[in-house]
């Protein structure tokens, strides 16, 4: 069979800081549109790729983890939405739309099909939203935004109507949805973000009660005291570091902290310590880390509920879509410098 062009993004070598565009290499290779003899799986054409913080972990030379690092010179791998081109796996047919781990390239042979999920197309929901708003993964290290927000808020935070909720990185892929779910639950919600544009979006698009730019606050604990004079019941933590330290001082008795992500620490070889952890004791705070794959039994319920809320226009979801595989390295690097607004998606191909 004649080979076709296959654009690819390769991983150059291990890193110790935040990813840079130069840590990846774009090239044009070739691919044959058939499954090689002796292999079982599906050959897919990739349509959308997701840029996620966990990819940084796979760029480190660290092997004592449940998530293996990339091999230098290999194709970067992440979550994507793809269409099946050819298959010898009885669970899939040519033309099926699937989501799961795939290569940062135009065509990928996927042999681990047990973690692929067929997508049920709904014309009222953009296909790319299955990477964000309706995203889910069976991999422990993945933080698919929609299901992460849903499971983290309802299962870990155990919210009650009227409670005071603080969300960091609130304009990101997870935070924007957490805030909206909290508002629908009858909570008072404040978010933090890193630009005036994001603060405006939180208040005017996502419906937060208030928001502030943490970069303009030399005293984060004092800022939180202004917005939560009576304290914080729930802190949904996406950043860790100084923001978590300040939140600990402002929590109410029996407050809950959902430790979802610590993006402020991703670019640091030596992680920052937390000074106010002792507040867990006198305030009887429950702080819990979680992974969305712990709650897979809730995924059908999540799909129905969030899908309906979106179609009823009771929630909104913002994506930052970049066109062409060539844009993927810069898009991933921008995730760690705060350039993103909403879910970062690379459109490889529009059918």
UniProtKB/TrEMBL annotation:
Top-level taxon of origin: Eukaryota
Keywords from the named record: Oxidoreductase
Pfam families, per the entry: ADH_N_2, ADH_zinc_N
Gene3D superfamilies attached to this UniProt entry: Medium-chain alcohol dehydrogenases, catalytic domain, NAD(P)-binding Rossmann-like Domain
UniProt-listed InterPro entries: ADH-like_C, ADH_N_2, ER, GroES-like_sf, MDR_fam, NAD(P)-bd_dom_sf
SUPFAM superfamilies, alphabetized: GroES-like, NAD(P)-binding Rossmann-fold domains
An annotated Gene Ontology molecular function: oxidoreductase activity, acting on the CH-CH group of donors, NAD or NADP as acceptor
Domain Enoyl reductase (ER): 42-346
UniProt-listed PANTHER family: PROSTAGLANDIN REDUCTASE, ZINC-BINDING DEHYDROGENASE FAMILY PROTEIN
Assembly and interaction partners: Homodimer.
Entry protein name: Enoyl reductase (ER) domain-containing protein
Annotated source species: Spirodela intermedia (Intermediate duckweed)
């Amino acid at each position: 069979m004649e080979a076709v062009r296959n654009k690819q993004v390769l991983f150059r070598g291990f890193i110790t800081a935040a990813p840079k565009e130069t840590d990846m290499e774009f090239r044009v290779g070739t691919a044959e549109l058939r499954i090689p003899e002796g292999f079982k799986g599906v050959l897919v054409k990739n349509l959308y790729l997701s840029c996620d913080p966990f990819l940084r972990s796979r760029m480190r030379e660290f092997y004592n983890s449940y998530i293996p690092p990339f091999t230098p010179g290999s194709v970067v791998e992440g979550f994507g939405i793809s269409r099946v081109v050819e298959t010898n796996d009885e669970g899939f047919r040519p033309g099926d739309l699937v989501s799961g781990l795939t290569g940062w390239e135009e065509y990928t042979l996927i042999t681990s099909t047990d973690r692929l999920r067929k997508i049920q197309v709904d014309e009222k929901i953009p296909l790319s939203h299955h990477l964000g708003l309706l995203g889910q993964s069976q991999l422990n290290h993945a933080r698919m935004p929609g299901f992460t927000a849903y499971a983290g808020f309802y299962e870990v935070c155990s919210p009650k109507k009227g409670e005071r909720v603080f969300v960091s990185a609130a304009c990101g892929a997870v935070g924007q949805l957490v805030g909206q779910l909290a508002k629908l639950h009858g909570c008072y919600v404040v978010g933090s973000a890193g630009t005036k544009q994001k603060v405006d979006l939180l208040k005017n698009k996502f419906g937060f009660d208030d928001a502030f730019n943490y970069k303009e606050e030399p005293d984060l604990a004092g800022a939180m005291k202004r917005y939560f004079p009576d304290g914080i019941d729930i802190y949904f933590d996406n950043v860790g570091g100084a923001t978590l330290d300040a939140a600990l001082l402002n929590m109410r008795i029996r407050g809950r902290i959902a430790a979802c992500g610590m993006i402020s620490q991703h670019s640091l070889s030596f992680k920052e310590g937390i000074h106010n952890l002792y507040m867990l004791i006198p305030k009887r705070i429950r702080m819990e880390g979680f992974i969305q794959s712990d709650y897979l039994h809730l995924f059908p319920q999540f799909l129905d509920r969030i899908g309906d809320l979106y179609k009823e226009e009771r929630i909104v979801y913002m994506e930052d879509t970049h066109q062409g595989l060539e844009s993927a390295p810069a898009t991933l690097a921008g995730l760690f410098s705060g350039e993103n607004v909403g879910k970062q998606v690379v459109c490889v191909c529009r059918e």
